[in-house]
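G.,

No rush on this.
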Amino acid sequence: MRIPLLGVPGVEGMRRAGRAAAATLAYVGERLSAGVTTADIDRWVREDTARRGGRPSQLGFHGFPAAVCTSRNDVVCHGIPRSDERLQPGDIVNVDVTTLLDGFHGDTSATFCIGEVSPDARHVVEVARRCRDAGVAVVRHGVRLGDVGAAIEELARAEGCSVVRDYGGHGIGKAMHGPPTVMHVGPRGQGVRLAAGMAITIEPMVNLGRPEVRLLADGWTVVTADGSLSAQFEHTVVVTRDGCEVTTG
């Protein structure tokens, strides 16, 4: 498994793509409210990505039919936007934006609360955000991916939540998905050893209930097996000698 290492031009390319993706995510997030359809979100992502000179990386990827993943309530990941799916007060929805700009990809997501949400919903959203940040904090040259995953898993477990094991992060750069696979669970001391110049995503999917998931008949949408709420936050990071640079900050 050969993992590409970015030089100075590559890191700068990742910065530009990451900033564009983050700006599109922020633009969409400000527009979310009850009554918005997930198809509206897809349209906004297409329009804003184009304004920034990019292209939605997800559109057509292995046949994915949309420009963004919109994962609502018990949907863990890869939710397909639909014109008949309207956000309701109390919903949580993850919006996952990936932008291809000048040959590099920036990948980021956040889970948004629609109006007043339940204490359980707010809890799983905040735990997911903290889990992402806990993983990012561990990333540096020489660390193993198991150490990153363990930091995420331990925090989630301490907060009464679980981390999905069937899906994880990935290498990124000139390809949207590449090696290594980034699992968000331990054990410590195992897995690929990170090196300066690698670019990966940290994107733990955190469930309020158990970690098991199931795939719906559309072949894309992943939901919690027990129907519990799920939340996710994601950053793209470039590994450095002393830590990492978050390109989608």
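When you get to it, here's the other one too:
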Amino acid sequence: MTDTTSTEASASVSTDTIKVDIWSDVQCPWCYIGKRKFEAGVAQFDGTVEVEYHSFELSPDTPVDYAGTPVQYLSEKKGMPLAEVEQMLERVTGIAESVGLHYDYDSVHQTNTVISHELLHYAKAHGRQLEMKERLLKAYFIDGRHVGRIEDLADLAAEIGLDRADVVRSLTAHEHLAAVKADVAQAGAYGIQGVPFFVIDGRYGISGAQDPTAFTQALDQARADRSAKTGDGVDDVPA
């Protein structure tokens, strides 16, 4: 997979390259699981894939410094008993383990993720979006790091080689907030209501953390259908 460094880069993708646009949120457990399954599907595809991540906020009303636990937050948000939420998180943690991810919900800092999406756009502009996405997901679900505050995000950005001071400057100025809002608006235009959501070659949509073979088949189909591509909408991948 290759990173996308700018809008202009997207327009110049080789005709042999399949572009995949992925809408996801940093605090979405299925997005991290789906990322691993997608990567496994790409590994089985005998072509070139370019990936670009787009912003989607599952809980835009979450306070940056939410005082409770993820269990408490989900219980409040969904109106579910605490025990039921705990069972739900145990299930998703087990599925994460099956793809090599070791979720630690006891250490997760529930927060607002809009500023982390701004960081992802900053990283994209500097050719490091894929690395930044991976680092943010790991920080949130595995390392117990805070992904809703500028100073903490700047530390994570510096870990992958970005200029910490410039990251602080950009996030403080909300330099990429408009791009985040544009991503959210595009998701609405596509009819995306949940994440992860994968748009393959601007045409086929796959929702959720599907098996790797589903992604491989969709990539194969997109390549085969290049000559018949019409319209600007997103279609479901035929079963």
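The radius of gyration is 18 Å. The first helix runs from residue 7 to 11.

Enjoy the weekend,
O.
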